[in-house]
Amino acid sequence: MPLSPGDDFLIHQFPEPIDTVFTGDRQFYDRYYFNMHGSDDSLFMVFGMGQYPNLGVTDAFVTVAHGDHQVTVRASRELGSDRMDTSVGPLKVELLEGLRALRLTCDENEWGLSCDVTFRATTEALAEPKSYTYVGQRQTQNTYRLAHVGSYEGWLEVDGVRYDITPDRWLGARDHSWGVRHGVGDPEPKGIGAKIHPDMSMGFFHNWLPIQFDDHMVKVTIDNDHAGRRILEEAVKLYNLGDERPPEHLGRPEIDITYFSGTREIEKAELWFSGDGASDLRITTTPLKTVYLKAGSGYMHDGYWGHGVWQGADLKVEGVDTPIGEPTERLDIAFLNETLCRHETNDGRVGYGMHENLAAGLYIPFGWKSPDAVAD
To answer: What pLDDT, in 10s, does the model give residues 24-59?
Structure first.
């Protein structure tokens, strides 16, 4: 294993070069995620970049829901031996200040989507509960994630329209996660997994909401299994930088979602909290704009493009243009949905932020007893 520039920093965790990770699991990953919006329904952007050391691949994408379509620029290349190189073709993430400021760029290209924006945190980074998943005796997920909210400054161009990005209204969230996560790289042979866990025989219900108010963030995570049993939860209020008030734990998060008829896509939702000492806060969410991660980002392997999938070239850059119709017309792309929402509390405060929702396979509390069941 060759040395890299990262090896000159005092950051080693075990007696191997930095480019060597703690496990040989092919599905180890290290990934940035960002979203950005203008506090309205004009557009919603998601930007992501990941490295997959055991697969020798790094890839990135930027995707924007704008008007009646979603445009994506994506790129993949050989990782090489310098994990500090966070560029993939026209896409780059530049760390300006740890846990405070990062710059995202997409150079001008033939698909008409480019940007140069800087994220600046307005809260401390929040360490989420670790995520573990097992299939049989095999651990298929063991991840650590940090998340926080902030503002953006710079510019974005899409469909020939240039937006001046100013921190007074252009907001969003970002996370950084790493570890082992099922679904990275080319699909594995099923083997005995076909017996233990047949495709979509069970289910997973996921909600991830970093909600941004003027002086704080409300961060909620709810993960349930197919029967509605809680796997992972988080509900915390985190005040902006400079406010010395400690984080407030809000109680057990609960959610009531109304889906568009004939779909698994959110029409509206309500959040509240239960248990001893729970907050009496209630939040009603109204969707404004959705980015469909299945539409070219790589989050779901489509038989050709996926996170960590070697594309057979030192560098490959592509654009994808996906029309967005009515809810029942986009069933093929509505799976892992990043839905920008307006959030209103029971005391009249208004905030903005994403409601990430995934309802995969069976979900008995909704009466979805087959993988293709949808809302009435």
So the answer is: 999 999 999 999 999 999 999 999 999 999 999 999
Supply the DSSP symbol for 39. Answer: S
**Of 207, 197, 194, 106, the residue nearest 157 (C-alpha):** 106
- DSSP assignment string, 235-263: EEEEEBTT--PPPEE--EEEEEEEEPTTS
Distance CA 43, CA 65 (A): 6
All residues at 6 or more sequence positions from 92 whose CB lies less than 8 Å from its CB, including other chains = 60, 86, 103, 104, 105, 106
pLDDT tens for residues 168-201? 999 999 999 999 998 899 888 877 777 766 654 6
Cβ atoms of residues 302 and 293 within 8 Å: no
Length of the chain: 376
Q: Are 358 and 336 in contact (CB under 8 A)?
A: yes
- Pairing type for strands 126-127 and 131-135 reads unpaired
Q: Which of 358, 43, 371 is nearest to 209 (CA)?
A: 358
Per-position DSSP letters for 98-152, written without gaps between them: TTTEEEEEE---TTSEEEEEEEEESBPPEEPPPEEEEETTEEEEEEEEEEEEEEE
Q: How many CA atoms lie within 13 A of 282 on its CB side?
A: 6
Gap between the Cα atoms of 19 and 11, Å rounded: 12
Backbone angles phi, psi at 193, to 5 degrees: -60, -25
Q: Name the nearest CA neighbour of 262 among 354, 326, 357.
A: 326
Residue 325's SS3 state is coil
pTM for the full predicted model = 0.96
Pairing of β 43-52 and β 57-66: antiparallel
Q: In whole angstroms, give the CA distance from residue 11 to residue 48.
A: 24
Strands (E), 260-300: 266-274, 283-292
What is the per-residue pLDDT across 69-126, written as a single tens digit (0 to 9) for each? Answer: 999 999 999 999 999 999 999 999 999 999 999 999 999 999 999 999 999 999 999 9
Query: Would you state the CATH architecture of domain 25-366?
Result: Beta Barrel (2.40)
Residue type at 270 in one-letter notation: E
